[in-house]
Write a structure and sequence with these properties.
The chain is an all-alpha fold. The chain is built from seven helices and no strands. The longest helix has 30 residues, at 169-198.
């Protein structure tokens, strides 16, 4: 896994920064999902959580004759988990693109908590996901979602061409206002000069 990440890093450095927003969003979401999987696998192996996200997402495909840990079902759960995590990167990147990359980690943290609330907690409440029986699994889920948000935005900022971000939107608005005021002042001076030409004083 680490060797694959190093190879990907080397390839991106050779290609250069990315300018396509959709591509950046998908890659950022995918990298964030990989971060979740590494963390979740370690927590599951050390018995800090009772299930991986693949097990939880397998609830979508569970039937009365299967369980959430039945291998073919878990594979579908992992596929769904990776698809959702990757696609969520798109709206998250457009938020960064619109608001600028200043305080991007804080924005990633907020996005990760919203994802935890609506997808993880909400999915359990409406019966889409199986509800874990142990509290430690919920704590692990909170940590993994936070890690997802931070890793995703960090990857996006690293992958994206800096010119994509409007890092100083308010300063841009102020410059526009100053320019408009300057044009108005210039126009009023021209009108004043024209008026004096038409009405010369002797």
């Amino acid at each position: 896994m680490i060797k694959s990440l190093l190879k990907a890093t080397s390839l991106i450095n050779k290609i250069g920064k990315i300018q396509d927003s959709i591509t950046i969003g998908l890659l950022g979401g995918f990298i964030g999902t990989l971060a979740i999987d590494i963390s979740n696998a370690l927590l599951y192996k050390t018995k800090k959580t009772e299930a991986t996200f693949g097990h939880l997402a397998a609830s979508f495909f569970r039937t009365p004759t299967t369980t959430s840990k039945y291998k073919p079902t878990v594979f579908l759960g992992e596929l769904l988990h990776h698809s959702v995590g990757t696609v969520i990167g798109i709206p998250l990147f457009y938020i960064l693109k619109k608001t600028g990359k200043d305080h991007y980690l804080a924005k990633g943290l907020v996005a990760s908590l919203l994802t935890w609330i609506f997808l993880y907690t909400g999915g359990q409440e409406i019966g889409l996901l199986k509800k874990p029986s142990k509290v430690k699994t919920h704590y692990a889920a909170v940590w993994n979602h936070i890690l997802y948000g931070l890793a995703t935005v960090k990857a996006m900022v690293w992958l994206a061409d800096p010119e994509i971000f409007s890092s100083q939107p308010f300063q841009s608005d102020q410059k526009t206002i100053q320019r408009d005021n300057l044009l108005t002042w210039s126009q009023s001076n021209q009108d004043s000069v024209s008026s004096e030409d038409l009405n010369p004083s002797y």
